Amino acid sequence: MRKFRLGEGFREEPQIxxxxxxxxxxEEEQDEEEVRNEITSLxxxxxxxxxxxxxxxxxxxxxxxAEYTDNCAxxxxxxxxxxxxxxxxxxxxxxxxxxxxxxxxxxxICDRGFLNExxxxxxxxxxxKDEAAGLFFFMLRDRVFTDIQSTGFACAAKCTFEFITxxxxx
Length: 170
Known about the structure:
This protein has helices at 19-59, 63-68, 73-77, 84-99, 107-122, 126-142, 158-165; strands at residues 2-5, 9-12. By secondary structure, the protein is mostly helical. The chain has a two-stranded antiparallel ribbon. A hairpin with a 3-residue loop joins strand 1 and strand 2 (9-12). Helix 5 runs antiparallel to helix 6. The longest helix has 41 residues, at 19-59. It starts with a strand and ends in a 5-residue tail after the last helix. Mean pLDDT is 82; it is low at 52-59.
């Protein structure tokens, strides 16, 4: 141990430690190391959880989309492959049929919304329009419009309306 004394500066003092003090110091160092390891583990776990939450938010922020859409399982089971735009349109139509009544929509509005958006995306391409019409036909075979009394709680979310209408990527 070093001590400072006026006029003498720092000087070494003889260290006299007892055996019990050395053991206590070692135990204290081990305890500190364990605490550091636990803190490091907690920080890593929190960072991992935060990353997972960010991915979840990026993937899907609207609970009704996750709850009431199935990525057009029926159509895909029939062997149709869907690109990203067709899949989103199909999901929007499915959510419109499930939650549209809550937002003052009916089946005709949902159907027109799908057909108008498909027409816009196809930009005059006849093959694209034919494929959209085929998708629409198969979707209708699997859909039943849900009345307002049967809509779920998640339908009330603002993001549901935004997803159906394409206002945002919800």
